[in-house]
From TrEMBL:
<keyword id="KW-1003">Cell membrane</keyword>
<keyword id="KW-1133">Transmembrane helix</keyword>
<keyword id="KW-0812">Transmembrane</keyword>
<keyword id="KW-0813">Transport</keyword>
<dbReference type="GO" id="GO:0005886">
    <property type="term" value="C:plasma membrane"/>
</dbReference>
<dbReference type="GO" id="GO:0015031">
    <property type="term" value="P:protein transport"/>
</dbReference>
<keyword id="KW-0472">Membrane</keyword>
<keyword id="KW-0811">Translocation</keyword>
<keyword id="KW-0653">Protein transport</keyword>
<dbReference type="InterPro" id="IPR003849">
    <property type="entry name" value="Preprotein_translocase_YajC"/>
</dbReference>
<dbReference type="Pfam" id="PF02699">
    <property type="entry name" value="YajC"/>
</dbReference>
<protein>
    <recommendedName>
        <fullName>Sec translocon accessory complex subunit YajC</fullName>
    </recommendedName>
</protein>
<comment type="similarity">
    <text>Belongs to the YajC family.</text>
</comment>
Amino acid sequence: MSFFIPAAHAQAANAAPPGGELFQIFFLVGLFVLFYFIAIRPQRKRQKEHQELVSNLAKGDEIITTSGILGRVAKLDDTYMVVTVADKVDMKFQRLHVHAVLPKGTLKNIGTDA
């Protein structure tokens, strides 16, 4: 059994240099900061822009929904809106499903008469 004792002393002599734990902490903090700037910050920016778009909707705006339906806003509520997609065809959507507000006249240019 005394054969293993010198090997144990040799391992203790080659121990990791001091400060290794500090490096690991800085590495984890740096990794979180990188993740924040790559993933979290841009997503929050897009979420804020979408919330602003939804809150600025007005009657008569030409929109496209997340499902790809084009139409003109006919009536607005706090959480819902009525979109006219064709003559005498109205659909009700949640406001948060608006993907984009189109420039005025877009629906005429693409051939829909909403």
